[in-house]
Amino acid sequence: MFANPNLAPLSAEIFLLTMACVVMVVDLFQKDKQRRLTLWLSQASLFVTLLLTMQSYGTEKTVLYDGFWVVDNLSIILKSAILIVAMAALAYAPNYINERKFLRGEYYMLAMFAVLGMLVMVSAHNLLVIYLGLELLSLPLYAMVAMERDNPKASEAAIKYFVMGALASGFLLYGMSLLYGATQEIGLQAFADALTKLNEQPLMLKFGVVFIVAGLAFKLGAVPFHMWLPDVYHGAPTSVTLFMGSAPKIAAFGMLMRLLVDGLSSAITEWQPLLLVLAYLSIALGNVVAISQWNLKRMLAYSAISHVGYFLMGIIAGNADGYAASMFYILVYAVMTLASFGIIIFLSRAGFESDRLEDFAGLAKRSPWYAAMTLFTMMSLAGVPPFVGFWPKLEVIMAALNAGYVGLAIHAVVFSLIGAYYYLRVAKVMYFDPPSEETPIEANSGLRLLMSVNGLLMLGLGLVPGWLLAYCLSAFPG
How far apart are CA 16 and CA 22, in angstroms? Predict the structure, then answer.
């Protein structure tokens, strides 16, 4: 199998692994407390990894290393998106983590290992390699959540995240073991072929699918496996929340595609009803509970739960257009997440976390431009045209309608209208409430530029969404 391996398809992952180790060593000899070299080396490594990844775009789907690894348009686009979003997330972080006294080289090194785990997840074509990628993502995230050691909320969030993450991994691993028991295969292609040869699906396979879906739902934060997500989003440092709420969601979509579509397409009648229940519950509970939240990070956490429900709609549709719509949704959601948590980082300063709704009071008077950027982000999250959040929501609702899920589509539209309330409430506070303080915004020029670009992207992508949707459709030629 590996007598004379061609490692070219793994060049991006090998390079990133090597550079993560280099960053760790270089940081040991740094005297600069700002860790500028570590940051720039990390960003340069991610950029070169992006270039190496994009070289393979447009090639035929190829399964390598005896079914362990796959290179196709889906993996290339998802990896590219993960790397771009990760670079933006790390660019938001330096000032924030420096002011809170946990700017250490390990932050960037852990982020790079987490990104490596994400890249493995979307190209894995084997149950064990998928699990390996998932753990390579999860373990650095547990450590990143706990990095602000003087903050008891962060420590509590890390423990909750670790315990619930371990439980989710257990569910997933147990489901994989049942699938192996039913088919005697762990490669997704061999596994899918074995399923088509079965006259009827054994009970072991059905239980395996249930545990797999439960494990995935835990990782995504779908109802009723969502209980960890608001506490972790709230307790973790905002720069970490921004990172873990954006790029890993794209990787989770990739893992979902590999397991359910590449591996379990023959068992679609088993997992479709399970996802349907998750979507109904997540859309309803996420939007309703978010209304009662006055802490913006908790509000965005419940918003994230509702968005999981929306993006599952395309997968439930069970066809190429539906999968592309879900992919479109998760890519846009990652960009919106960067902006929504980015504005909290932007308004925060040493000793003050701008994460309560009243902290945004009168922002339009203090800084009209950044109030507009925040408004763009909230309108996009609410799915208001012409902002970018409208188009993927329309696509997943149309995918559900075309697949015959009329009730689900109506449910999504109704709760989208309900959910618009808590996003518009942020706009009301910014534009109509008196300022809670007259303190000038202390963000540096780099953060101001990043926030401006991120905010304008909400409008720009909304005006010309077709090219991104075309890329998503190219990932599912069938």
Answer: 10
